[in-house]
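Render this sequence as a predicted structure.
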Amino acid sequence: MKKRVLFVSVLAFVLTLALTVPTAIAKDMTAKDLVMEAKKSICEISVSDAKALLDKGGYIFIDCREPKEFKMGHIPGAMNIPRGLMEFKIAKKVPDKTANIVVYCKKGGRGCLTTCCLCRMGYKNIKNMAGGWMGWEKAGYPIE
């Protein structure tokens, strides 16, 4: 009986150690690390592919930059939902989780994180525009 109690105690200790060690040795992540991790689980498209989708129609373009950035110029027809409010506003702005959506930001990082978040919230047909607003503007595509 004593051997069994000792075995159970050792097993409990080992399991506790195994469950806590990964947390203790996990490194803190930078913003760049978070973006790189998000990129592994999302669909990214080029600026030219995004332009083709805009021309084709049937896609909602979401600019996740801040309102001040949006007012300085954006993709024609895009709606502005800042990344910091996305989780709270998306359901009212885009209730259809099967809607075709293209997300963009200034360079691609915030868009990447936003796209990952929306995927986790159940949005199925969502893409991030790699290169963001700066890539769109550099390509000479139309702006509002």
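Summary. The radius of gyration is 22 Å. Helices lie at 2-25, 31-39, 47-56, 67-71, 86-93, 109-120, 132-138.
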